[in-house]
Amino acid sequence: MALEKELTVYKQKLPELKGQEGKFALIHGDDFIDTFGSYEDAMKEGYSKFGVNDPFLVKQIQAIEQVQFISRFVEPCELRRSV
Amino acid sequence: MTAQGPILVAYVGVSNARRVALVAAKQQIPNPIQVRALVDTGASGTCVDPSILKTLSLTPTGSATVNTPSTGSTPHTADQYDVSIIVPGAGPTHAPLNVPNLPVICADLLPQGFHALIGRDILSLCLLSYNGTTSLFTLAY
Fold it and tell me: What is the enclosing helix (H) or strand (E) of B22?
């Protein structure tokens, strides 16, 4: 599955990030790179550091992850159950 | 307004952040793709069909926890992709609605006759008016 390693790093790092709720974390493989004030800044840094072919994760820091709701009957891609 | 609801034409392209990186890498920038998009106040985030994301040669750069009627009571994790979305203005003198860097949820939408759901993340930038008596809607920004 895409970005599983990065998501694991994010979850492990989350307790240390409580003071940065709302910011955006940039993670590449096993490495937590940095946090950024905006999605755009995190994405720019991710592409600058890793290029267009090397996967990276940008995730908004939330102590309790906000669930996205879609009221239509759609299948999210690559869905897997949340732990 | 269509039988499916308030559908508009939009263009989905690579995000501005990715575009800059493609230029730096001297790689071709995919042309934005014209899509049929349903304005959906029931979607908290904008969704795009995987066929569009594949055509743009995109891979996931995020993940979202999603609850839909198909996922039941247990939220699922869905891939997110960074894109740009442009909604053309009503005429040649009207500036488009341009969202240059937007994380979108990948969702199978094509079987329902459209490529994208315009969710409340984009609608938070707009004023939406839905007139059922005339079957017209207006998206102002």
Answer: helix B16-24
> What are B136's two structure tokens?
């017209």
pLDDT exceeds 70 at position B45: yes
Fold type of domain B7-140:
Cathepsin D, subunit A; domain 1 (2.40.70)
Placement of tokens 């940095």 in the chain: A34
Interchain contact A63–B (C-beta under 8 A)? no
Average pLDDT over residues B18-25: 97
Domain extents in chain A: 1-83
pLDDT in tens, B27-41: 999 999 999 999 999
**DSSP-derived pairing of the beta strands B62-67 and A68-69:** parallel
Distance between A50 CA and the closest CA of chain B, angstroms = 9
Of A3, A69, A78, the CB nearest to B106: A78
Rounded distance, CA A52 to CA B100, Å? 17
Interface test with B, best of A1, A26, A36, A72 (most B CBs within 10 A): A72
Contact A39 B103 (CB under 8 A): yes
Q: Which two tokens stand for residue B22?
A: 């493609």
| pLDDT value at B69 more than 90 | no
Q: What is the share, in percent, of chain B residues with pLDDT greater than 90?
A: 87
Tell if the CB–CB gap between B42 and A65 is shorter than 8 Å.
no
Per-residue model confidence as pLDDT tens digits over B107-134:
999 999 999 999 999 999 999 999 999 9
